[in-house]
Design brief:
Layout (H helix, E strand, L loop, with lengths): L8 E7 L8 E7 L6 E10 L2 H8 L14 E9 L11 E4 L9 H5 L9 H6 L9 E3 L2 E3 L11 E5 L3 E3 L6 H4 L5 H12 L8 E4 L3 H12 L5 E4 L5 H7 L4 E3 L10 H8 L6 E4 L4 H9 L7 E4 L14 H4 L3 E4 L7 H13 L9 E6 L3 H9 L5 E5 L2
Parallel strand pairs: 10-11, 10-13, 11-12, 13-14, 14-15, 16-17
Antiparallel strand pairs: 1-2, 2-6, 3-4, 3-8, 3-17, 4-5, 5-9, 6-7
Helix pairs in contact: 5-6
The structure holds nicotinamide-adenine-dinucleotide, ligand AHE and zinc ion (ZN).
The site of ligand AHE has 12 residues, from loops.
Length: about 375
């Protein structure tokens, strides 16, 4: 058993004291895991746009002060009573989409969403309604059941998965969100068929992972769409066959009309990876009449709504969403780790920036810059 098991750990964390302010490096106390919980030393975390969204104050579930971060990998430090699936020393990826295997969602065979911890997760507390983080005596909220912007975190036993120790943690952390989300949306939520035509709106980490997943499934045309021309070379590197900047179409020509023209009626699969509700509408409208399927992955701000003519779906188009790429983390991530280790899909290529916990605000700036795909933060 580790020397620290059963005792509070003092460590560093980036604390989001309030919405709209930079996170601040603090010394915090992390309580030991209670029954059904696991304390993890976080070695690496990515910074995802969803962290920025919550930090901005747009997330209806955002609670402050909090320890944000949800794209982490590390090592189990100690486990609480009753935890049998992981043990001290295991290498793990933290899961913002838990998997308990007992709730009606997990048992349905229809979804990767899990009901075990989601309600308390959304309130920023552990399943028993309490918190494990304090800073100068003040309690800090958890975030997405993971809180990876801390050197140590406590999570439910359903919110992490052990992986092969040979997989480097500075890469594995990206399987905690962006890469899995996009790759899974293409291969699991939508099982893109060989030869199917695909359009991807928004070429960040998530959009690139959709492209990689579409290529993996041998899609036909993979059309990448972004208002940033710099994303063309990224999209093509990941397997896109074409790139369109919708802001550069001829006057009066919409991206929907253009896509319908160049694809003989529309796409088999479209994906929104922007979080912009107008783009979500375009994704639906550019799906082919009768069978085209549009998937919303992007997270829109509180109060935003998608609008479209019901005729769009009456005439056979399908609009759906995808959370964490439809991936059941505890069951399916070890297999994804194997695939990555065999070189079947990309992870390393997304990492454009690295930083340290001390300089995490530089990482936040990189993430917002428009030329960062993913910034990985070393927590030591
Ligand atoms: P990102 O900011 O790196 O990428 C978004 C891209 O969209 C950028 O390249 C941007 O230039 C482009 N874009 C913006 N407006 C556009 C427009 N009108 N038309 C075309 N392109 C446009 O973000 P990311 O990390 O790739 O994440 C994408 C979205 O997915 C975010 O909203 C994020 O919160 C969300 N997300 C959802 C899940 C999920 O499980 N559903 C998981 C991870 C991230
Ligand atoms: N709290 C937000 C939720 C936004 C959202 O949709 N989150 C995505 C994951 S984004 C990861 O970067 C998701 O998987 N949602 C499903 C879930 O159970 O949260 C809001 O807007 O309320
Ligand atoms: Zn994310």
């Amino acid at each position: 058993m580790s020397d620290t098991a059963g005792k509070p750990i003092t460590c560093k964390a980036a604390v989001a004291w309030e919405a709209g302010k930079p996170v601040s490096l603090e010394t915090i106390e992390v309580a030991p895991p209670k029954k059904g919980e696991v304390r993890v030393k976080v070695n690496f975390t990515g910074i995802c746009h969803t962290d920025m969204y919550t930090l901005s104050g747009s997330d209806p579930e955002g609670a402050f002060p909090a320890v944000l971060g949800h794209e982490g990998a590390g090592v189990v430090e100690s486990v609480g009573e009753g935890v049998t699936d992981v043990k001290e020393g295991d290498h793990v990826i933290l899961l913002y989409t838990a998997e308990c295997r007992q709730c009606k969602f997990c048992k349905s065979g229809k979804t990767n969403l899990c009901g075990a911890v989601r309600a308390t997760q959304g309130k920023g507390v552990m399943p028993d309604g309490t918190k494990r983080f304090t800073c100068n005596g003040k309690e800090l909220y958890h975030f997405m059941g993971t809180s990876t912007f801390s050197q140590y975190t406590v999570v439910s036993q359903y919110s992490l998965v052990a992986i092969d120790k040979s997989c480097p943690l500075d890469k594995a952390c990206l399987l905690g969100c962006g890469v899995t989300t996009g790759f899974g949306a293409a291969t699991i939520t939508n099982k893109i068929e060989e030869g199917a035509n695909v359009a991807v709106f928004g070429i960040g980490c998530v959009g690139l992972a959709v492209i990689d997943g579409a290529s993996f499934n041998k899609a036909g045309r993979i059309i990448a769409i972004d208002i940033n021309d710099g994303k063309e070379q990224w999209a093509k590197k990941f397997g896109a066959t074409e790139f369109i900047n919708p802001s550069k179409l001829p006057e009066g020509k919409s991206i929907v009309d253009h896509l319908i023209d160049i694809t003989d009626g529309g796409l088999d699969y479209t994906f929104d990876c922007t979080g912009n509700t107008k783009v979500m509408r375009s994704a639906l409208e550019s799906a082919h009449k009768g069978w085209g399927e549009a998937t919303v992955i992007g997270v829109a701000a509180a109060g935003e709504e998608i609008s479209f003519r019901p005729f769009q779906v009456v005439t056979g188009r399908v609009l759906r969403g995808s959370a964490f790429g439809g991936v059941k983390g505890r069951t399916q991530l070890p297999g994804m780790v194997d695939l990555y280790q065999k070189g079947e899909f990309k992870i390393d290529e997304y990492i454009t920036h690295t930083t340290t916990l001390d300089e995490i605000n530089k990482g936040v700036d990189h993430t917002k810059s428009g030329n960062c795909i993913r910034c990985v933060v070393s927590m030591d």
